[in-house]
Amino acid sequence: MSETPKATGSLADRITGPAASKLDAATTSFTPSASNASSSWADEVASPVGGQSKQLGGGIEEAQLDGAAQPLAGSGLHDAQYEVEVKLSDLQGDVNSPLFSVNTFEELGINQGILQGLYSMNFKKPSKIQEKALPLLLGNPPTNMIAQSQSGTGKTAAFVITILSRLDYSRPNQPQALCLAPSRELARQIEGVVRTIGQFVQGLTVQAAVPGAVERGAKVQAMVVVGTPGTVMDLIKRRQFDVSNMKVLCLDEADNMLDQQGLGDQCLRVKQMIPRVDQILLFSATFPDEVMRYAQQFSPGANEIKLKRDELTVGGIKQMYMDCPSDEGKYDILASLYGLMTIGSSIIFVKKKDTASRIAARLTEDGHKVVAVHSAFEGSERDSIVEDFRQGRAKVLITTNVLARGIDVSSVSMVINYDIPMKGRSDAEPDPETYLHRIGRTGRFGRVGVSISFVFDRKSFAALNQIAQHYNIDLVKLDQDDWDKTEEIVKNVIKSSRAGTNLQS
Ligand SMILES: Nc1ncnc2c1ncn2[C@@H]1O[C@H](COP(=O)(O)OP(=O)(O)OP(=O)(O)O)[C@@H](O)[C@H]1O
């Protein structure tokens, strides 16, 4: 690293000029992000079909359950739900919130069995993305869709409801819908949401197509298949998976799935192997311009629901940073934060698998209870570690970008960026999309959470500052020389998420 500053004085003080502008070194009070102040979101639907918009009152009596709660045995069960409920109804009645809607699920034309599933999860009202997207998604003839909405605002239910509405239930063994996700954990989670929302839908069959899930030679025989692109591609090639009757192809985390440097090739090949499909759906919280152009080719003629850059961050996530003494010195800061991490659950993101394993081993040696997971782990081991985390048996998870996207564990109240996310191998450029997805593991559906990003030298500071500028947000500096104050600030936010007193930004 080019610079290893001493612990004295903040890095913001040491760096002058415009680079320091978005990181707020002086204040310890939160500066609300621009995201929730804007009301332009609802106007962003570019639709050849046109949506519906009926006025309706509609209160919420109970809090929602996590979508993955039942089949995955409960990621949302650690919340004090009765405490969350009042504020959630406030949020859903606030026109500036991404959870706002004027319609009920009934008015969106969803069939009875699916409605029952939604109500069993305590979903009382649609979120904004659900309200805007569903009339377009459910219309006939089916139309493609590119949909963007902030992390944790219910995109999964929007595409799952669509998939369940399109199936021919007289053909239970015929694959009719394929949903692709970038990780096995996310594919499994989506499979769980399909099962939960579809639990009252007679005759529904669902199957996962992730590494190890389908035996060699066995046929994929479910109406809905949720998988990762590599495995799905292999299954189609080996003729285990008949894709001749596809009604819906959905890419969750679509910008990541279409990325030319990553999964783009595999997803394109899967699409090319499907002879025809009625509807192509692309969902994500982020769609960088260069990917959007490709997305439009992949999903031609799509309705588009887009967000502006400064609308992307969720107001409930309080974004902070810590100026660490050195790269190595980040470990001590992390260890000092352990008590705060275990008030709820926490995820620590690092760049490299080795770092994840090394930090986990060191924290364990130092008497802390943590787990690590990354792509070097074998599939079933990954599943069981993530399940322990969902269940609250493990409260601190150390991982890489493999779990940066989509994972929905509502008890997560803190995310730590141990390493600032950078693009590619060269590490030359900051990665604002990955930053947004990482911090979005907290603050799910109106909850409150804290993200703390570690910086330690000019490069990491500049990278974080560029990310802050990208989203036009102010980050709050936590002072490592005043732990009492730091603890108080963080605790105030985390405890409020559990007390339900601070759900609005
Ligand atoms: N209408 C609703 N009412 C109450 N809760 C809901 C509703 N829709 C979704 N949820 C819950 O909100 C949480 C977040 O939803 P989901 O995982 O679909 O977010 P997302 O938009 O896909 O986020 P990400 O971009 O991080 O993948 C889930 O626990 C889900 O069960």
UniProtKB/TrEMBL annotation:
Gene Ontology CC annotation, any one: cytoplasm
Domain DEAD-box RNA helicase Q positions: 103-131
Enzyme's top EC category: hydrolase
InterPro entries given in the database record: DEAD/DEAH_box_helicase_dom, Helicase_ATP-bd, Helicase_C-like, P-loop_NTPase, RNA_helicase_DEAD_Q_motif
Keyword check for Transport: yes
Domain Helicase C-terminal: from-to ranges: 316-494
Subunit record text: Associates with the nuclear pore complex.
Protein name: RNA helicase
Species for this entry: Hyaloscypha hepaticicola
